[in-house]
Specification:
The protein has ten helices and four strands. About 60% of the residues lie in helices and about 10% in strands. It has a domain of about 325 residues: Up-down Bundle (Outer membrane efflux proteins (OEP)). Strands 1-2-3-4 form a four-stranded antiparallel β-sheet, covered by helices on one side. The two termini are about 55 Å apart. The protein is an alpha+beta fold.
Length: about 475
């Protein structure tokens, strides 16, 4: 008995020590991205911050938007699936990790055998270990490490899904606000044009306005009426999209009633070189963990070429009668070490190693691709940052100038100094300028959300 216990203790010690590992020492990553951001990104804010350290409640200024984002994080089904995938990966890791320690079990058995004349019975009850592999070359440990990295990858994917959801909700909310403002502008313009049409119609009946002028006024009315119908449909679609993202109905008090002039409480820029920033993005972190998992699988595939030792042992009692199973003199033990030395398997082991190596190379390419895509997304958002600010400033000046021109043209037309065609053009220009201003404001605010997302912000929230 002491001898069996000593052998089992040695087996456990050998297994837990992990005598060797055959994982590749290092994997060279060459994402081929510039060492610095584009020159346009270096302007605008001297105080760089780490965006991933900014919670979304700190970034988004409007409390209504904060409430809608909070509802979405609680109820969105896609995010729920991502969370459940993390739970699944964790359970799979725990299953794989269990192979690194001996599994103890109790087994009771009754054997009946005999011939034409006699029948014999044998009863036994044992506590033991079955087929426990001594991890001499790290195969079991590498498989456990691969499962662990897959779990980390799923956790990063969950954070990436949360980041994307926060950005999608913010953009959907901003789009609803912009389209609501477009609808309001179209409704106000339609009301103004209808008043002008009634006045022109009365003048036409009295001979003070031509049929051409009446028809031109009607074109303004119908154009505005078409825009009202179009924007009303877009507002309805925007509400449906927001409800889907929020996972349920959204309180009307939380919806934007007009365009939002400033969505961000602060405007972060990246700290450090691109690699430092991009490696903190959850999608890049997920790709890195997948690469580490594939690397560990190579170690497991290499270890399969070497001998493996598994142990089966038990202690218990055996008796020919069930009533005497635990009486004195019935103790029994067994110790069965097994050595497996692969000699010829038709190329199976080499093929498994080839698959593991190919998976690692694929994961490496996907990791480098994730870094490159992240750099491109961030560079695009940074390039648009100053450009959209300049566009918004110019568009605001254009609206002011167009409205002034419309008022002057109306006054000159009433005084008989300008033709109706000049007034018509001034009205159209002012109306178009107002709509373009709303579109530019939406683009500028959406780019702020995109910049926050692509730099890795949005998933971290202190206290959650």
């Amino acid at each position: 008995m002491n001898k069996v216990s000593s052998l089992l203790a040695v087996a456990v010690a050998l297994a837990l020590s992990g005598c060797a590992t055959l994982v590749p020492a290092s994997t060279e990553v060459a994402p081929a991205i510039p060492a610095q951001w584009p020159a346009t990104a270096a302007t605008g804010n001297a105080a760089s911050v780490e965006v991933d350290a900014i919670g979304w409640r700190e970034f988004f200024a409007d409390p209504r938007l904060q409430a809608v984002i909070g509802q979405s994080l609680d109820n969105n089904r896609d995010l729920r699936v991502a969370v459940l995938n993390v739970e699944k990966a964790r359970a799979q890791y725990r299953i794989q990790r269990a192979d690194r320690v001996p599994a103890l079990g109790v087994q009771g058995q009754m054997t009946r055998s005999g011939g034409d004349v006699t029948v014999s019975e044998q009863f036994s009850a044992n506590l033991g270990v079955v087929e426990f592999e001594l991890d001499l070359f790290g195969r079991v440990r590498n498989l456990s490490q691969a499962a662990l990295q897959q779990y980390f990858a799923q956790a990063a994917n969950r954070r990436s899904a949360q980041l994307s959801l926060v950005a999608e909700v913010a953009n959907a909310w901003l789009t609803l606000g912009a389209d609501s403002e477009q609808l309001r502008i179209a409704q106000d313009t339609l009301a103004s044009y209808e008043d002008s049409f009634r006045l022109t119609e009365a003048r036409h009946q009295l001979g003070g306005a031509s049929s051409l002028e009446l028809s031109q006024t009607r074109t303004l009315v119908e154009t505005a009426r078409t825009d009202v119908a179009r924007f009303a449909g877009q507002v309805a679609q925007d509400r449906n999209a927001l409800v889907l993202l929020a996972g349920g109905p959204v309180d009307a008090a939380l919806l934007p009633q007009a365009e939002v002039t400033e969505v961000a409480a602060l405007r972060p820029l990246p700290a450090g070189v691109p690699g430092d920033v991009l490696l903190r993005r959850p999608d890049v972190m997920a790709a890195e963990h997948v690469l580490l998992s594939a690397n560990a699988n190579i170690g497991a595939a290499r270890a399969a070429f070497f001998p493996s030792i598994s142990l089966t042992g038990s202690i218990g009692s055996a008796s020919s009668e069930l009533s005497g199973l635990f009486d004195g003199g019935t103790r029994a033990w067994s110790f069965i070490p097994k050595l497996n030395l692969p000699i010829f398997q038709g190329g199976k082991l080499r093929a498994n190693l080839g698959v593991a190596t190919a998976d690692r190379d694929i994961a490496l390419a996907q990791y480098e691709r994730a870094i490159q895509s992240g750099f491109r997304e961030a560079a695009d958002a940074l390039a648009l940052n100053d450009s959209l600010d300049a566009q918004l400033s110019s568009q605001q000046a254009l609206v002011a100038a167009a409205e002034q021109a419309r008022q002057l043209s109306q006054a000159r037309y009433d005084a008989g100094l300008d033709s109706f065609l000049t007034l018509l053009d001034a009205r159209r220009t002012a109306y178009t300028a107002r709509k373009s201003l709303v579109s530019t404001q939406l683009a500028q605010q959406s780019n702020q959300v995109s910049l926050y997302k692509v730099l890795g912000g949005g998933w971290h929230e202190r206290g959650s």
